[in-house]
């Protein structure tokens, strides 16, 4: 034990500074506490900025896109005049098929004029063009299909609902105002007044827009008919391919790396590769898809199979990383127990470790799929921007048919001129976000439900 | 024990530095400290001993309100430093901790140079008027913790590069540099080898000259070597408190006796 | 024979092999599975694997190799004269393959019989009219038609042999594996060895992907640099591609735009993300944390196309109307500022969650040490926690930078397409990724420098991001080791 008497007295350190009472804060403490408050405020401000940005983003998408789920239709008695649709008068389907959709426009225009006369609506400057551009070109095509399918309705007067043009539709969504109509070559003040008058009389109805969700894309001048049906189907096909390829391959690779791989050069190379692939810009995968799958292998452009393959390669690192984490979280004692009763390493992994890691693997896979679902850039390069109006057939042949994808459809619409397409782009994003939300909720549900504490 | 008379004299001279009355600590639902009453003297080394999980470290952390940093901890009762309640609403824990320094179980030098480690406290509390002042404080503190000769040539090398025992002495120097009145030590030697331990123990004995030192230890030998007063904790209760010599030779409570003789622990 | 059917038949064979193998071994053991080396299913599996695996392997390789060989053989049928001015062999070959697929569709729809399709000539008006009536018109030069027919013939023969070879292989595997079965046959070991091989095969896909990326970028870049001098690409300050020729393809304006936008994005995202991470890991109560952390992570889950649209429709016009025009700095909706800010928002969760992990990895003992000396919480963070976490945070910022450089949709929709070097952040500029998309979307001619330049840009982007990633991962790993 140290002998206290031999101790050299220690020189006192700096003068005691806190001679004051604890109960009163010194000036310096006050200053330091003010700095503390400021620092904390920066943190709160940062979080506020992030959260506000999120809310503003979601708000602006919903503000712009919600109206895509509503559509304005004309609801009128339409007289299908035989002179227009069957000029020869012999009801010969081959002859009638020669009448193009455009001519059916006259049927609709005449019906609208008749209605205006019957309701005694007076609008100055209402021109022929205003009537003509009131209807969507899609409405004429629908009418033609109806007549060709059932020639007996020729000459009859039917109560019909027909799609209006995107400008008329816009008048009821705040996109087109009386003032903007005056400056717009594609509409006019007279058309605006007509639309308002029709609305008052109940000849214009606004309905939930099922066509938006089920119908394919439409050409530049019929924005009102464009839908995301083909895009949803295309995205769905690609997700199927990603799921079928990426999940087994990713799980197999993770099992090897986590459970079997010896520590050597080869394993290191694989590990480094996976880490780097996870951070390679997605567009580079698009270049790979274009060069390898389309140019080299010769797979067809714009098809779900190529998109699915590219997205699979992109998603693999995500799935491998999360699967490895899930495998790692299974305690070694489980492995020891199985090996201890004489199971082979392979049996241990497949009978015990893998089932226990399954919830984690599924969660990771769903998150990977959600990422793949929203990915756009690589799909642009493999030609998914193509204008596709026919549904791909059922798988597996359908995987080789041209299709679109939800996020690419959004991009596609932003490149068009008619503002109605922007509304639809936002609407498509709402659908996309709903899908993503569902997937993430499923992932959270799985994690909560099967969460294990060892 | 040729220094016994000296210890006796000092104890009677000094006033009470810290008083604790009916202190209760809860961790969530767990009642970790029950009804602790103790008077800790100035210029004395007081040792808290007891089996692990007995609450000695918890109680130590109450004295400079380190438990405030744990969300679920709740403290009742009164602890006073020089007669002022440290849990009073007006007390700023920052100011309190400047007066009541702390050294931890594992050496935890900051990832900075040795100089900056020691200068950290004086800088934040504004103890130095200028660079020369600061240099002086750093040197004095390093000398005070018997580290000066070992590090004076490499003051600007990282503190994490020192050996375990040196790191712990650096942490003590860091605490001393702030010029506290009380120095709390939470098992300061548990991560050190025997040689480093004896160096730190020697240092603790020197620190008594200037501070009231409270040390938590799991080693009864250490308590006997460095302390003048000892408190024995068991299951959250302060079982016995008195002169170290008395506790180890004439324990009053059967639990203390069992612990000292190695039957519980 | 369609591949689909081959796959189905092989699968059926291998299922039969499973049943047969298991049955055979059980018969040999007189129904007592204890006499066997392995459990009966393993015998079944060993037969099934021998039946399916070699066949599928050959099938896969065949599918990759056949088009290449056919291309070669068909290419001989196209004389140099058939390649028109300004065309390349590739374009003519593409035409031939398109006609070949038209013809095979025609055969499929019974418009022509196979021999009729193979003997079609450009002056056989009767057959051509039949094709036109079925909306499958064939309009081309005789040479190309002959190449297309050769294409059709070769594909037909190829797929015929493919069927024969794979099915024979599958059958042989089945018989071989069945004959090997004996009660002391180590079926489990065989199956496990094959499984292990499969697992290794799956994990090498990562290497194959990287190799594929590097090869496709490098090869096409080399053909680009044969057509266009590399000095002009890397150091050219003008980007004016024109498919008629005389393009200037200098990369510097694109690189400038990329870096400018990335810097603005980081200037926004790093402070916000870092402070958010600090607040969440050091101050926020568990309840606040459990609400705010997922909210910020939602930002990370939003696809970039959504940010792109947000930039195009909302942020761009806002910045133009409220900042750029009042200050007289421009009237472009898409600008460096627009893309940079929106990208900054996208990067917030990236920076904050990485920093959060890193700050949490700083040992609590350092915080205790600092608090025990009487420093305030913010002093502890600024002077102890952040310096300790600095290497990790630098790594996180580098990763975020690599993200920003490689980001595509936000800049495609938010930054504009003007290739220029300017300091005004309210002007439209463009980036490497925008131009990759621009040059590769639509119909491409893989012989013109205007298309191939995209691969050189891709290679630049890949090298740039890869360098940043490796450096960042190295720093982060070093940092983790420090506290483990």
UniProtKB/TrEMBL annotation, chain B:
Residue ranges occupied by any ABC transporter domain in the UniProt entry: 18-260
CDD domains found in the cross-reference section: ABC_PstB_phosphate_transporter (cd03260)
InterPro entries: AAA+_ATPase, ABC_transporter-like_ATP-bd, ABC_transporter-like_CS, P-loop_NTPase, PstB-like
Location(s) in or outside the cell: Cell inner membrane
SMART domains named among the record's database cross-references: AAA
Membrane topology: Peripheral membrane protein
Keywords: ATP-binding, Cell membrane, Membrane, Nucleotide-binding, Phosphate transport, Translocase, Transport
Nucleotide-binding as UniProt keyword: yes
Gene Ontology annotations of biological process type: phosphate ion transmembrane transport
Pfam families: ABC_tran
Superkingdom field: Bacteria
Main localization (coarse): membrane
Gene Ontology terms for molecular function: ATP binding; ATP hydrolysis activity; phosphate transmembrane transporter activity
PROSITE patterns, A to Z: ABC_TRANSPORTER_1, ABC_TRANSPORTER_2
GO cellular component: plasma membrane
PANTHER family xref list: ABC TRANSPORTER I FAMILY MEMBER 17
Chain's role: Part of the ABC transporter complex PstSACB involved in phosphate import. Responsible for energy coupling to the transport system.
Protein name: Phosphate ABC transporter ATP-binding protein
Taxonomic path: Bacteria, Pseudomonadati, Pseudomonadota, Alphaproteobacteria, Rhodobacterales
From TrEMBL, chain C:
InterPro entries: MetI-like (IPR000515), MetI-like_sf (IPR035906), Phosphate_PstC (IPR011864), PstC_N (IPR022182)
Record's bilayer topology term: Multi-pass membrane protein
Highest taxon, organism lineage: Bacteria
Chain segments annotated as transmembrane: 43-65, 160-178, 198-219, 254-278, 298-319, 331-351, 452-476
Listed GO biological process terms: phosphate ion transport
GO MF annotations, alphabetized: phosphate transmembrane transporter activity
PROSITE patterns reported in the protein's UniProt record: ABC_TM1
Subcellular location: Cell inner membrane; Cell membrane
Keyword annotations: Cell inner membrane, Cell membrane, Membrane, Phosphate transport, Transmembrane, Transmembrane helix, Transport
GO CC terms in record: plasma membrane
CDD domains documented for this protein: TM_PBP2 (cd06261)
Stored SUPFAM superfamilies: MetI-like (SSF161098)
ABC transmembrane type-1 domain span: 255-472
Function: Part of the binding-protein-dependent transport system for phosphate; probably responsible for the translocation of the substrate across the membrane.
Family of the protein in this entry: Belongs to the binding-protein-dependent transport system permease family. CysTW subfamily.
Protein name: Phosphate transport system permease protein
Organism: Paracoccus aurantiacus
């Amino acid at each position: 034990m140290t002998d206290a008497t031999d101790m050299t007295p220690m020189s006192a350190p700096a003068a005691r500074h806190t001679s004051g009472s604890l109960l009163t804060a010194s000036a310096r403490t006050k200053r330091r506490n003010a700095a503390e408050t400021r620092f904390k405020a920066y943190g709160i401000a940062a979080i506020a900025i992030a959260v506000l940005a999120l809310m503003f983003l979601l708000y602006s998408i919903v503000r712009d896109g919600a109206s895509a789920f509503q559509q304005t239709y004309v609801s009128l008695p339409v007289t299908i005049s035989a002179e227009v649709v069957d000029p020869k008068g012999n009801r010969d389907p081959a002859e009638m098929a020669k009448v193009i959709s455009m001519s059916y426009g006259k049927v609709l225009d005449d019906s609208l004029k008749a209605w205006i006369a019957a309701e005694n609506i007076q609008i100055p400057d209402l021109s022929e063009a205003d009537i003509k551009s009131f209807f969507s070109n899609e409405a004429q095509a629908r009418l033609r299909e109806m007549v060709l399918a059932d020639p007996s309705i020729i000459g009859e007067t039917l109560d019909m609902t027909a799609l209006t043009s995107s400008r008329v539709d816009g008048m009821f969504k705040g996109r087109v105002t009386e003032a903007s109509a005056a400056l717009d070559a594609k509409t006019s003040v007279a058309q605006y007044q007509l639309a308002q008058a029709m609305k008052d009389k109940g000849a214009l109805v606004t309905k939930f827009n099922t066509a938006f969700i089920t119908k394919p894309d439409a050409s530049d001048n019929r924005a009102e008919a464009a839908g995301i049906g083909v895009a949803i189907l295309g995205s769905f096909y690609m997700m199927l391919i990603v799921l079928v390829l990426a999940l087994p391959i990713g799980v197999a690779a993770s099992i090897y790396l986590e459970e079997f791989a010896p520590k050597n050069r080869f394993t290191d190379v694989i590990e480094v590769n996976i880490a780097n692939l996870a951070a390679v810009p997605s567009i580079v995968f698009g270049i790979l898809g274009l060069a390898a799958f389309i140019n080299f292998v010769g797979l067809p452009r714009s098809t779900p199979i190529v998109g699915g393959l590219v997205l699979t390669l992109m998603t693999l690192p995500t799935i491998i990383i999360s699967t490895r984490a899930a495998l790692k979280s299974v305690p070694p004692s489980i492995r020891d127990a199985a090996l201890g009763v004489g199971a082979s390493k392979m049996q241990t992994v497949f009978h015990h470790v893998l089932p226990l890691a399954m919830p984690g693997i599924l969660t990771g896979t769903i998150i990977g799929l959600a990422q793949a679902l929203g990915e756009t850039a690589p799909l642009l390069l493999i030609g998914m921007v193509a204008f596709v109006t026919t549904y791909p057939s059922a798988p597996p042949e359908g995987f080789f048919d041209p299709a679109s994808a939800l996020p690419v459809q959004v991009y596609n619409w932003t490149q068009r001129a008619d503002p109605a397409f922007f509304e639809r782009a936002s609407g498509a994003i709402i659908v996309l976000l709903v899908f993503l939300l569902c997937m993430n909720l499923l992932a959270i549900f799985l994690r909560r439900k099967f969460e294990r504490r060892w | 024990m040729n220094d016994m008379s000296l210890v006796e004299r000092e104890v009677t001279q000094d006033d009470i530095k810290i008083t604790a009355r009916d202190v209760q600590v809860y961790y969530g639902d767990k009642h970790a400290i029950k009804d602790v009453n103790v008077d800790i003297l100035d210029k004395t080394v007081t040792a808290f001993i007891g089996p692990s999980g007995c609450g000695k470290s918890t109680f130590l952390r109450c004295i400079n309100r380190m438990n405030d940093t744990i969300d679920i901890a709740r403290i009742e009762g009164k602890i006073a430093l020089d007669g002022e309640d440290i849990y009073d609403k007006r007390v700023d824990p920052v100011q309190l901790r400047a007066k009541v320094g702390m050294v931890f179980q594992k050496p935890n030098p900051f990832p900075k140079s040795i100089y900056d480690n020691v200068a950290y406290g004086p800088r934040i509390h504004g103890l130095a008027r200028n660079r020369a002042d600061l240099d002086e404080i750093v040197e004095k503190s390093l000398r005070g913790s018997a580290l000066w000769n070992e590090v004076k040539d490499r003051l600007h090398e990282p503190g994490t590069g020192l050996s375990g025992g040196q790191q712990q002495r650096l942490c003590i120097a860091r605490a001393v540099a702030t010029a506290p009145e009380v120095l709390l030590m939470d098992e300061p030697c548990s991560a050190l080898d025997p040689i480093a331990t004896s160096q730190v123990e020697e240092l603790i004995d020197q620190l008594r000259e200037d501070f009231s030192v409270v040390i938590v230890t799991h080693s009864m030998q250490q308590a006997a070597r460095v302390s003048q007063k000892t408190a024995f904790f068991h299951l959250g209760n302060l079982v016995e408190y008195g002169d170290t010599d008395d506790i180890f030779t004439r324990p009053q409570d059967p639990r203390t006796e069992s612990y000292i003789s190695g039957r519980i622990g | 024979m369609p591949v689909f059917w081959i796959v189905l038949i092989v699968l059926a064979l291998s299922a039969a092999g499973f049943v047969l193998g298991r049955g055979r071994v059980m018969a040999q053991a007189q129904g007592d599975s204890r006499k066997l080396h392995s459990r009966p299913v393993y015998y079944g599996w060993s037969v099934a694997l021998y039946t399916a695996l070699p066949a599928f392997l050959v099938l896969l390789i065949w599918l990759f190799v056949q088009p290449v060989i056919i291309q070669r053989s068909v290419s001989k049928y196209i004389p140099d004269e058939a390649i028109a001015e300004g065309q390349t062999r590739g374009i003519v070959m593409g035409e031939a393959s398109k006609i070949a697929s038209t013809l095979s569709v025609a055969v499929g729809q019974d418009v022509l019989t196979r021999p009729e399709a193979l003997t079609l000539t450009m002056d056989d008006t009767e057959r051509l009219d039949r094709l036109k009536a079925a909306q499958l018109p064939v309009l081309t030069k005789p040479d190309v038609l002959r190449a297309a027919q050769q294409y059709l013939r070769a594909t037909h023969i190829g797929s015929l042999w493919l069927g024969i070879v794979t099915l024979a292989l599958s059958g042989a595997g089945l018989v071989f594996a069945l004959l090997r079965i004996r009660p002391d046959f180590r079926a489990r070991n065989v199956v496990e060895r094959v499984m292990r091989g499969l697992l290794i095969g799956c994990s090498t896909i990562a290497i194959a992907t990287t190799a594929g990326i590097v090869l496709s970028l490098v090869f096409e870049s080399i053909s680009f640099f044969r057509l266009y001098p590399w000095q002009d690409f890397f150091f050219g300050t003008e980007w004016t591609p024109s498919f008629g020729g005389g393009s200037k393809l200098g990369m510097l304006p694109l690189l400038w735009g990329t870096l400018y936008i990335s810097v603005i994005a980081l200037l926004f995202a790093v402070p916000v993300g870092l402070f958010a991470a600090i607040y969440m890991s050091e101050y926020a109560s568990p309840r606040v944390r459990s609400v705010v952390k997922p909210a910020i992570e939602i930002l990370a889950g939003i696809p970039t196309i959504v940010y792109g649209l947000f930039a195009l429709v909302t942020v761009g016009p806002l910045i133009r109307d409220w900042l750029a025009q009042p200050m007289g700095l421009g009237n472009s909706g898409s600008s460096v500022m627009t893309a940079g800010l929106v990208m900054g928002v996208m990067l917030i969760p990236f920076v904050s969650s990485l920093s959060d992990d890193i700050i949490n990895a700083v040992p609590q003992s350092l915080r205790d040490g600092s608090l025990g000396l009487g420093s305030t919480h913010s002093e502890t963070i600024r002077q102890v926690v952040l310096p300790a976490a600095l290497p990790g945070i630098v790594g996180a910022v580098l990763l975020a930078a690599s993200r920003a450089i490689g980001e595509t949709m936000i800049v495609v929709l938010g930054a504009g397409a003007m290739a220029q070097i300017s300091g005004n952040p309210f002007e439209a500029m463009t980036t490497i990724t925008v131009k990759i998309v621009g040059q590769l979307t639509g119909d491409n001619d893989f012989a013109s420098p205007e298309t191939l330049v995209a691969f050189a840009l891709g290679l630049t982007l890949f090298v740039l991001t890869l360098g940043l990633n490796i450096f960042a991962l190295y720093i982060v790993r070093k940092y983790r080791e420090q506290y483990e």
